[in-house]
Amino acid sequence: MTTQDIIKPENLVYAKPSIMNDNTMHYCPGCSHGVVHKLVAEVIEEMGIVDKTIGISPVGCAVFAYNYIDIDWQEAAHGRAPAMATAIKRLLPDHCVFTYQGDGDLAAIGTAETIHACNRGENIAIIFINNAIYGMTGGQMAPTTLEGMKTSTCPYGRDVTLNGYHLPIGNLVAQLEGTRYVTRQSVHTAAAVRKAKAAIKKAFENTLAPEKKGASFVEIVSTCNSGWKMSPKDANDWMVENMFKAYPIGDLKNI
Amino acid sequence: MAKIKGAVEVNTNRCKGCELCVVACPAKVLGMSKQVNAKGYNYACMVNPDACIGCASCGIVCPDGCISVYKVKIEN
Questions:
Q1: Residues of A in contact with B67 (CB under 8 A)
Q2: Is A92 a domain residue?
Q3: Nearest CA-CA distance, residue A214 and chain B, Å
Q4: Beta carbon pairs, A and B, within 8 Å
Q5: Looking at chain A, which terminus has fewer C-beta neighbours within 10 angstroms, N or C?
Q6: pLDDT tens, A204-254?
């Protein structure tokens, strides 16, 4: 049997979700954002909530998320996505409202909005891409940057006496009464991607379950191979070796 | 015993040549082409098509959604 005999529509077992359109993504080769975009699209499609989902795109690399997934989107000011999601969810309580934010957006300029939206127990989902760096602006130090990690604004490594420690925002929001589901996942292997998809699905289901209120927070520990100045494969290996020590994978809260 | 055979179709124009699918493939089916696409990237292709088991690991890790995976069961 030749390859041409196998490649037929009836034998298809995996393809990109149909609501992920054919626009070429602006992300660098090997960027974790693409995988998470695909997971979000797959979950929305599987749950059949294409018309009932509103995404809030951040400022950062994912600012153009609305160009790639064919659902309703709203662009928020830098860091203010959880505040905007709060308003949209309160006006349209039967919709699945989620924010998609990076660490420069969520953990730096938007720390207050994130913590207060979680503390108010807003019934929204927050997808947090943590790659420990400001990717879009050229690889500067972020609050999530690891101790000793080199970035363009700390070329000798992050010095804790000068810059403080990495901010484990997932652990912070897990302490709050208002959160219902807090998890930390990654997308570096096929198995990890499947787990991350299950986490995103659970978060989206939580937003549509009005009987139990609370924010769902899915942190995806990711790579920024351009910012880290590594190949995509080396970036994944570096993430497993260094990032997972500071940001251990697993559920932090599930009630 | 039935045998599983798979095949991978890569959207060569969309592929950015990150090679994550090559790393993810458990059967060492995928490799990078010598040709480049319109954007100048070496795209992924099947270098050892007979070994493909259609597990879809390559498609799952692909950040750009370039990969479609097909699978058939062949009865002996």
A1: 14
A2: yes
A3: 30
A4: 98
A5: C
A6: 999 998 777 899 999 999 999 999 999 999 999 999 999 999 999 999 999
Percent pLDDT > 70 in chain A is: 100
Surface of B (36-65) touching A: CB under 8 A:
41, 46, 49, 54-57, 59-65
Cβ contacts of B24 on chain A, cutoff 8 Å: 189-190
Average pLDDT, chain A: 93
**To probe the interface with A, which of B11, B16, B19, B76 has the most A CB atoms within 10 Å?**
B16
- Look at residues A128, A217, A78, A15 and name the one whose alpha carbon lies nearest to residue B7: A15
Whether residue A228 is contained in a domain is answered as: yes
Place of tokens 């995509």: A232
Q: Which CATH number fits domain B3-74: 3.30.70.20, 2.40.50.730, 3.20.20.150, 3.40.50.300?
A: 3.30.70.20
In total, how many domains does chain A have?
1
Integer Cα distance of A111 and A12 in angstroms: 43
Which tokens hold the place of A26? 């602006």
**B3 shares contact with chain A (CB less than 8 Å):** no
Closest partner residue to B61 (CB to CB) among A8, A15, A35 is: A35
Closest by Cα among B38, B42, B51, B37 to B7:
B51
Write the CATH number for A207. Answer: 3.40.50.970
The residues pairing with A186 across neighbouring beta strands, listed in sequence order, are: A221
Q: Is residue A49 part of a domain?
A: yes
Instruction: List, for residues A205-217, the tens digit of each pLDDT value.
Output: 999 987 778 999 9
Give B56's contacts in chain A (Cβ within 8 Å): 13-14, 190
pLDDT digits (tens, 9 = 90+) for A141-150: 999 999 999 9
In angstroms, the CA B5 to CA B76 distance is 12
| CB–CB contact A35 B57 (8 Å) | no
Dihedral angle over CA of A172, A176, A182, A188, nearest 10: -10
